[in-house]
């Protein structure tokens, strides 16, 4: 009997504790403060996202007059500011004007020039090492560029499920091509503006083609003469 009475007392005590745990607790001041912090942080994130979209809405249109790179508006400053504080360092500027007909400098180049230092990535521009100007006739489409390329890279590019970025799927097949044999296979047409249908395949025995477009043989020959 004593054991039974003791077991009943323990059962009632455990039941009362469990019922007390399941009772909903009234909202306390700390919980309200936590919810307010969450709303404030959410608004802060929304403001930062809006600020970022606004800063990159115009695109990288500002050309640095020192490193000759494209930058966003929030990454450049007028070069006139450098001329006022350090006139001797402006001799390396290329006098390039872009947006609003103003000469711009990126903050990295501006920091180096104020210390009379040369930015490592801009050494080639200072030494006059630049790519040649693109000729007017070199307006080739995708297939015409492939026909005069010394190497053809066949790769499968797909869009990632998250983020929408492009990624390479599978193996990359690198095929070495002879430009002169490719150009000699093209038909000689009487008119320079005439076009022919060309299909680019991994192998000639394949039925499907990797790329199929109309090309102008005269443009391909001019491009081959330029890069040979």
Automatic annotation (TrEMBL):
It holds the Pfam family DUF6570. Residues 120-222 form the DUF6570 domain. InterPro entries: DUF6570. Residues 1-39 are annotated as: Disordered. It comes from the Eukaryota. This is DUF6570 domain-containing protein. It comes from Paramuricea clavata.
């Amino acid at each position: 009997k004593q054991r039974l009475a003791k077991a009943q007392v323990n059962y009632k005590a455990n039941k009362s504790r469990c019922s007390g745990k399941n009772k909903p607790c009234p909202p306390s001041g700390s919980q309200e403060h936590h919810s307010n912090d969450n709303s404030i942080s959410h608004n802060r994130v929304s403001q930062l996202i809006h600020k970022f979209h606004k800063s990159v809405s115009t695109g990288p249109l500002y050309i640095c007059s020192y490193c000759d790179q494209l930058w966003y508006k929030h990454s450049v400053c007028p070069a006139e500011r450098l001329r006022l504080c350090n006139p001797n360092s402006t001799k390396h500027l290329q006098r390039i004007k872009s947006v609003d007909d103003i000469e711009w400098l990126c903050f990295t180049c501006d920091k180096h020039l104020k210390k009379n230092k040369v930015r490592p990535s801009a050494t080639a521009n200072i030494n006059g090492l630049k790519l040649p100007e693109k000729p007017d006739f070199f307006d080739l489409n995708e297939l015409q560029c492939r026909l005069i390329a010394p190497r053809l890279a066949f790769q499968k590019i797909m869009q990632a499920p998250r983020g929408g970025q492009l990624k390479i799927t599978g193996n990359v097949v690198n095929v070495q091509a002879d430009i002169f044999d490719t150009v000699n296979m093209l038909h000689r047409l009487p008119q320079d503006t005439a076009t022919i249908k060309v299909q680019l395949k991994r192998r000639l025995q394949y039925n499907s083609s990797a790329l199929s477009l109309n090309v102008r043989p005269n443009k391909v020959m001019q491009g081959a003469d330029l890069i040979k």
